[in-house]
Amino acid sequence: MTLELAVRIAEILLGVALLQQNLEFLCGTGFEKRVALVRILLAALLIAGIYPVWMESFLLISSILLIKYFRGPYNGGSDTMSLLLLLCLWCSHIAPSRLWQEVALGYGALQLTLSYFQAGWVKLINPEWRSGKALAEVFSFSAYPVSESLRALSQRNRLLFGVSWCVIIGEVLFPLALLNITALTIALVFTACFHLANAILFGLNRFFWSWLAAYPIIIWFQERLPDLL
């Protein structure tokens, strides 16, 4: 995958993520609703590929305004990942040379890799995650809109133990996927399914598009990595 193609696909997926995020703000009132209307237009133009560097510039400015307004990222990790990817894409457009373009996108790819590894490491050192108890408590006591039928899964100890370890292993070993395109493809399918399951089961729909938008960048990075080593 070429750098230009990776950037274009990432911008389309990021535009979708930003559209979703800002459509939620339309249910609000006042400042966030007005900013959301502008950001929806900017995201649509970004998806269409119209002056992407300007769209990303205005999206960055409006993102900073929202962070100041909410005194931090509105939705935590998903908004942080969206902002990080937006910044990397913007930097790739204004970079003075091909080398700095690659540095900007490589940073985004490494941050995506570290996000999975760190999440897996935190789970690995947590005895409740290793035993499956943490996942059971998510189904039992979480405020997320899990149906009553799904809450019954909190009693399936063996199933939750196995799922917990699948997630831990998949996240901790994610950096190794950079060594081979086939391994990376499998890893990205696994993590995409993981995010999709979280969206369906727990309503964490923002994470799916925010992380998926970075996948073209890491695919490009993996193909470029042998030349850098």
Polypeptide structure, described:
The chain has 229 residues and is mainly alpha-helical. It is 80% helix and 0% strand. It has one domain. The chain has helices at residues 3-25, 31-48, 52-70, 77-94, 98-124, 127-131, 133-141, 148-151, 157-172, 181-202, 205-212, 215-228. The longest helix has 27 residues, at 98-124.
Reconstruct the topology from this structure.
Elements: H1 3-25, H2 31-48, H3 52-70, H4 77-94, H5 98-124, H6 127-131, H7 133-141, H8 148-151, H9 157-172, H10 181-202, H11 205-212, H12 215-228
Helix pairs in contact: 1-2, 1-4, 1-11, 1-12, 2-3, 3-4, 4-5, 4-11, 5-9, 5-12, 10-11, 10-12
Keywords, separated by commas or semicolons:
mainly alpha, 0% strand, 80% helix, 229 residues
How much helix is in the residues? over 70%
Mean pLDDT figure:
89
Shape: globular
Q: Helix/strand-derived class?
A: mainly alpha
- Largest β-sheet summary: none
Count of beta strands: 0
What's a concise summary of this model?
With 229 residues, the protein is mostly helical. It has twelve helices and no strands. It has helices at 3-25, 31-48, 52-70, 77-94, 98-124, 127-131, 133-141, 148-151, 157-172, 181-202, 205-212, 215-228.
